[in-house]
Write a structure and sequence with these properties.
alpha/beta, 9 strands, globular, two-stranded antiparallel ribbon, seven-stranded mixed sheet, about 40% helix
Length: about 300
């Protein structure tokens, strides 16, 4: 989240109707976007982040509730854990003194790294991260590549403008091409042999079924890095790390995932054009949604089952 960012929420009016926030006069981009503004140069363009696109792919209706309506969401334990661990990992790289660890043994280094994470309820996870980083350092030292151990991007926010073509997704054709604003905070970017490797941290448990989602996220980051004026470097690989499962994965850029991600962007714009954000109901998924009590699909499903969400 960029410095100075403050989320503006919608509200209920006196009739109990939800009122969405509206863009401010000086906004360059927004989620509360109207495709009809495309030729009005004083109007903001559509903002898309990795998180907002992920919400849309999870459920179109959830995206509408969260990003267009700006309805408050409950903070889950998983969300809290993610924030704390991400912040601690970012600070870790800022505080470690490489000169102090150059000649340490693995055990000494691991203990030193553990000491650079705050004592929290998630020390089991940060201890795993410390061990992972100690092994990375030993490997880099053995290969005489200590300079590649430190990331060249650490929780780096990038912004860019890209064009989404009218025919980028034949299943969801658009009325015209659109310029959109994409934004993301990349957990880590490593440089290896002169090539950039975006790397994502996840605090959940790894499942092979998550591979498609991870590839979509990394495709978004690759597009963002290549389009941004604030980053240079060829991207041939990407990867992710799930410390709760001690799972690390790096692979070559997946071209099919990049094509699929572009189609997802076009599908999102198509929903704006049609002003139609459809719910995708599945009980085991929806029970964890903050908006399950107001979602028409969830309410209809529970009515048919003769039970209630609330």
């Amino acid at each position: 989240m960029s410095d100075g960012y403050k989320r503006t929420y919608g509200h209920e009016n006196e009739n109990g109707e939800w009122v969405r926030p509206v863009p401010k006069p000086d906004d360059e981009y927004t989620y509360q976007w109207n495709p009809e503004w495309i030729d009005e140069h004083d109007k903001p363009i559509l903002k898309i982040t990795k998180s907002s696109l992920g919400s849309f792919k999870w459920c179109n209706k959830q995206y509408e509730f969260s990003y267009l309506d700006r309805r408050p969401q409950d903070q889950s334990e998983a969300m809290l854990k993610g924030t704390i661990v991400h912040d601690a990992y970012e600070d870790f790289y800022k505080s470690v003194d490489i000169k102090k660890v150059e000649n340490m043994t693995f055990t000494e280094m691991n203990d030193y790294f553990v000491g650079h994470f705050p004592i929290t309820d998630y020390s089991d996870m940060t201890d795993s991260i410390a061990t992972f980083e100690a092994q990375r350092f030993v490997d880099a030292r053995n290969e005489d590549k200590i300079d590649e151990w430190m990331p060249t991007g650490n929780e780096l926010q990038l912004d860019a403008k890209i064009t989404i073509g009218a025919n980028d997704n034949p299943k969801y054709p658009l009325s015209r091409d659109y310029i959109v604003h994409i934004q993301g905070i990349i957990d880590r970017i490593y440089t290896e042999n002169g090539k950039s490797i975006p790397f994502e941290l996840k605090t959940g448990v790894w499942k092979d079924s998550k591979k498609t989602t991870m590839r979509r996220e990394m495709s978004f980051y690759k597009m963002l890095m290549e389009a941004s004026d604030d980053w240079e470097g060829e991207i041939t690989h990407w990867g992710w790390y799930y410390p709760a499962s001690n799972y690390v994965y790096v692979e070559e850029v997946n071209k099919r995932s990049i094509t699929s991600m572009k189609k997802s962007l076009a599908e999102l714009i198509h929903s704006y054009e049609q002003n139609n954000f459809k719910p995708s109901y599945f009980h085991k998924k929806c029970v964890h949604c903050s908006f399950v009590g107001i979602c028409p699909a969830a309410l209809d499903a529970e009515l048919n089952r003769g039970s209630s969400w609330v």
